């Protein structure tokens, strides 16, 4: 009988298999426990705050609050654009909302006509979920109270108080400041891929964006940062209570301060009356714009709520174009206000200013008769007289001596044909023609690429292809008045308290002081010589403060065969443009003004000069130094030592011959002989 045998290698093999399986399972178990522990640590430690927010989000909702839009002020801190309270009624779009039924309920509390109802239903249909849609704005306190009392009965209806933009001066600053309006579909499309835009804020019904002027150019600075109100809600998202402690306050937008002066701006719009045109006032020391008026204007407050189609059509189709900013965008021939620039070009080219040219009232050249505005003529004229009398014949002939290229160089040096960085869009640079311009303009017509001699006389009196705007005329006048710096205009004084660069940080003018003084002297004669073209209309009545200026008339049609150019029966759109530029005081220039009266009739003294005078008076009277000069008593005339002044006591007492008799004084012989 054989004995049993044990094979140890089998036992070892089985134990090895067991151990490997045990280690493998243990590893899996350990890895699972480690992953579970890591995930628990991540949830409880790393992402705890996130899940706390998600948990709180089920209990609390944050309602977006648009920030207060930044204020726009004038140079003295007067508010030009601010915000006022606005009671609003809104419907929050949500799943299962019966818009028709809600509108029926609201119609019992506030007046909702068919047009408004249709608009709200259309906007609710297009709005994204949870987005509020405005039903009414500017509710009265009674209407606001009625809705809030019945708020529990009106699901998805909210009546709250927001802010709306307000422009205290209505239309006085409308073209410069612009206005705000609701965000349009086009605005949303443009901002869709812009990472800097707050998309949720853009969809808020109380949010407005800038549409023109300063409001548009500095829109992001004026917006500020949105806030939120915290409210506890139930499972259906309805507000249970408010939690003011959790509110996130909005940050208001930056304050924009302009160089404009509210008093001067309002006076400029007032003197324009029903006329169409522009007035620009500029400080000749630093380039600050004190007024930029375009008339007629419009009430920017109407655009905040939104104009009806009929209202907008009436503004757009009115022939005097109230929506057009004539101070920057409107282009006009400058007429005779361009003659000081032509005079500078002539002096620079070496023309003798004392050389006299006879003006018989007309001049034959190039197969046609060129007429002066003075039918009887001015007689022999030097440059000083020609500026004072605005003699066309003198400048016809002088411009031919100088040529178009030299005139264009001087014009650009004085600010014409340029765009100035004043912070807002909308400028048109106009046209300063020369030979190179002629080649570009008639590229497809080689026969007209040549500058014909007959084009120069019109150029010399500010007509032809030359076009400018009122801002450029003010710059030209300011540079003449300053007589040193090529000033640039400044409109934005500060943004958020940060001062903007001055318009005086510029190079010098490329003209000699002698030539500038000569032209300034001619402009002084226009306003202060009794034979000047604007003498009566340029007297400021402010003591010894005098104004220097230049009149201008720009034709809009040919007058060949027209019996009376000044005919009162001429329709408005066929009348001449009326222009005037001026600066004051002449002996210490502070302010320059440019006035354009569109189709104001012949003669810049008839319409432009009186308006310039009234606006200039306001600017001068607001200047403390000028006011002190005006109010300073005039010095008494000096008397010769031997003269006896009327009412003065004698130096020595005079003895009377007897008591009670009246004293007698020794007779005095006046200087220059016996009486």
From TrEMBL:
Its EC number is 3.4.16.4. Residues 656-675 have a biased composition (Low complexity). Residues 629-675 are annotated as: Disordered. Signal peptide: none annotated. One of its GO terms (molecular function) is serine-type D-Ala-D-Ala carboxypeptidase activity. It is an enzyme of class 3 (hydrolase). It comes from the Bacteria. Residues 65-241 form the Penicillin-binding protein dimerisation domain. Residues 277-616 form the Penicillin-binding protein transpeptidase domain. Keywords: Carboxypeptidase, Cell inner membrane, Cell membrane, Cell shape, Cell wall biogenesis/degradation, Hydrolase, Membrane, Peptidoglycan synthesis, Protease, Transmembrane, Transmembrane helix. It is a single-pass membrane protein. Its main location: membrane. It is found in: Cell membrane; Membrane. This is Penicillin-binding protein 2. It comes from Caulobacter segnis. The lineage of its organism: Bacteria, Pseudomonadati, Pseudomonadota, Alphaproteobacteria, Caulobacterales.
């Amino acid at each position: 009988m054989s004995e049993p045998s044990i094979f140890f290698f089998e036992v070892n093999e089985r134990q090895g298999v067991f151990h490997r399986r045990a280690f493998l399972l243990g590893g899996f178990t350990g890895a699972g426990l480690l992953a579970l522990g890591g995930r628990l640590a991540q949830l409880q430690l790393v992402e705890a705050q996130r899940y706390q927010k998600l948990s709180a989000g089920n209990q609390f909702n944050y309602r977006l609050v648009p920030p207060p839009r930044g204020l726009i002020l004038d140079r003295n801190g007067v508010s030009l654009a601010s915000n006022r309270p606005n009671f609003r009624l809104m419907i929050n779009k949500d799943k299962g909302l019966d818009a028709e039924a809600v509108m029926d309920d609201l119609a019992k509390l506030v007046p909702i006509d068919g047009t408004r109802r249709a608009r709200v239903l259309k906007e609710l249909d297009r709005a994204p979920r949870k987005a509020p849609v405005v039903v009414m704005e500017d509710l009265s306190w009674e209407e606001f109270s009625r809705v809030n009392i019945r708020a529990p009965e009106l699901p998805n209806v909210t009546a709250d108080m927001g802010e709306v933009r307000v422009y205290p001066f209505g239309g006085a600053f409308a073209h410069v400041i612009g206005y705000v309006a609701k965000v349009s579909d086009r605005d949303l499309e443009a901002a869709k891929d812009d990472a800097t835009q707050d998309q949720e804020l853009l969809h808020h019904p109380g949010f407005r964006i800038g549409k023109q002027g300063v409001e548009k150019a500095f829109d992001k600075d004026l917006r500020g940062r949105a806030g939120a109100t915290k409210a506890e809600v139930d499972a259906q998202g309805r507000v249970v209570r408010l939690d003011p402690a959790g509110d996130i306050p909005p940050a208001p937008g930056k304050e924009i301060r302009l160089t404009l002066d509210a008093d001067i701006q309002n006076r400029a719009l007032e003197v324009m009356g029903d006329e169409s045109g522009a007035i620009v006032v500029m400080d000749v020391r630093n380039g600050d714009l004190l007024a930029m008026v375009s008339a007629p204007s419009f009430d920017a407050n109407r655009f905040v709520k939104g104009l009806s189609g009929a209202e907008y059509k009436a503004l757009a189709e009115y022939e005097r174009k109230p929506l057009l900013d004539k101070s920057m965008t409107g282009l006009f021939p400058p007429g005779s206000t361009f003659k000081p620039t032509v005079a500078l070009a002539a002096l620079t080219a070496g023309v003798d200013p004392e050389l006299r040219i006879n003006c018989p009232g007309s001049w034959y050249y190039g197969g046609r008769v060129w007429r002066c505005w003075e039918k009887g003529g001015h007689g022999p004229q030097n440059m000083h007289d020609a500026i004072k009398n605005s003699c066309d014949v003198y400048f016809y002939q002088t411009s031919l001596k100088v040529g178009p290229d030299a005139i264009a160089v001087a014009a650009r040096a004085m600010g014409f044909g340029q765009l100035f960085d004043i912070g807002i869009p909308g400028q048109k640079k106009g046209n300063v023609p020369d030979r190179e311009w002629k080649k570009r303009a008639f590229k497809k017509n080689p026969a007209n690429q040549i500058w014909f001699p007959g084009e120069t006389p019109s150029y010399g009196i500010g007509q032809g292809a030359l076009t400018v705007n009122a801002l450029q005329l003010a710059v030209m006048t300011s540079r003449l008045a300053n007589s040193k710096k090529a000033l640039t205009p400044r409109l934005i004084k500060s943004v958020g308290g940060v001062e903007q660069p001055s318009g005086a940080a510029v190079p010098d003018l490329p003209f000699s002081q002698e030539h500038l003084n000569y032209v300034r002297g001619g402009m002084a004669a226009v306003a202060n010589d009794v034979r000047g073209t604007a003498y009566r209309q340029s007297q400021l009545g402010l003591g010894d403060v005098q104004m220097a200026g230049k009149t201008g008339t720009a034709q809009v049609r040919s007058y060949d065969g027209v019996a009376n150019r000044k005919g009162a029966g001429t329709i408005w759109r066929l009348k001449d443009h009326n222009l005037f530029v001026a600066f004051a005081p002449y002996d210490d220039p502070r302010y320059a003004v440019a006035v354009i009266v569109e189709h104001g009739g012949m003669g810049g003294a008839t319409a432009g000069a009186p308006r310039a005078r009234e606006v200039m008076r306001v600017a001068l009277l607001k200047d403390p130094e000028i006011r002190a000069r005006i109010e300073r008593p005039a010095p008494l005339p000096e008397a010769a030592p031997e003269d006896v002044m009327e009412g003065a006591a004698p130096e020595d007492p005079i003895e009377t011959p007897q008591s009670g008799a009246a004293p007698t004084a020794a007779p005095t012989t006046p200087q220059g002989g016996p009486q």
